[in-house]
Amino acid sequence: MLWMSCLPAAALLLLLLLPCSPGQKCEGNGQQTDIISVWEGDSISITCSRKYLEEVGTYLKTSKDRVNVLFVSRQGTSRIHSTLVNRLNYSEEGRNLRITLHNAQQSDSNIYQCSTYVKTEGQGHHKELCEKEIIVVVKARTGALEQSPLYASPQPSQSINITCALKSPYEEFYLLKTHVHRERVLCVSSQNTSTTSLAFANRLEYSNEEKKIVITLHNLQENDSDIYVCAGLVKKVPYFLVSGSGTMMLIKGTQIDCRNSFWIICALAIMVALLLTALMCCALSRVDV
């Protein structure tokens, strides 16, 4: 489906989210990236900004080949890709355009981009402005990417390995945090160039084989707890983004030693009992007098 046509690396905010490879074909303006992770059959909701007064229309496109998924003009007319007419709808909410894709399929996994065409000086001239990119991961129960482990619960400062094995060679590989703090943790190209988020700078290592990547996250902290999903851009025509089942990682917090707490409570209880006994003795002695 053209909804899952060719993909590029996402251009992400500041040094935290730098692209694996160049590929922007329109002017950026405060670009950022959203990450959406859903199961097959769920709905995908994407919001595009419509903030330009001189806007001609807003597009949702695939990032690399710029295939039009949806176009909505300022006058309210629209065009939806023929393969998505029965599953895609949109609504205008103030200066935002909310796009919903129903009954998500794994083949919908892709990297998309909101863009706006605006009028420029000179009759008949327009300029395309990129608003943001959206990495969409639709997870199937079984797929072309195997990820392990499914669950991990390390102690703070410990390390963990996440293994991602693809059945086909990849063009680009991603490790994504998809729930609590959504971000792109790692991006590796087929040329073995990579970018790592600032949150894991100096804490991430990986080994790269043709169809397998082992990622090691070091010195884990409680705020690293999240669901980590592997995703790979497979070398097929059209390109296809496959994803793993995810690794749910919960970093254990510092626990109080229950034995020490027990003795502290016992000592306090004894002190209170002795104090009450002393007070009662004083009261009785005064009554006797």
Could you describe the 3D structure shown?
- It holds the Pfam family V-set.
- GO terms for molecular function: signaling receptor activity.
- Keywords: Membrane, Signal, Transmembrane, Transmembrane helix.
- Residues 33-139, 149-252 form the Immunoglobulin domain.
- The protein folds into two domains: 2-139, Immunoglobulins (Immunoglobulin-like), CATH 2.60.40.10; 145-249, Immunoglobulin-like (Sandwich).
- It is built from one helix and 21 strands.
- The model is unreliable at 1-19 and 254-265 (pLDDT under 50).
- Strand 9 and strand 10 form a beta hairpin.
- Strands 1, 2, 4, 5, 6, 9 and 10 form a seven-stranded mixed β-sheet that branches. Strands 12, 14, 15, 16, 19, 20 and 21 form a seven-stranded mixed β-sheet that branches. It has a four-stranded antiparallel β-sheet with strand order 11-13-18-17, with no helix packed on it.
- The protein has 289 residues and is mainly beta.
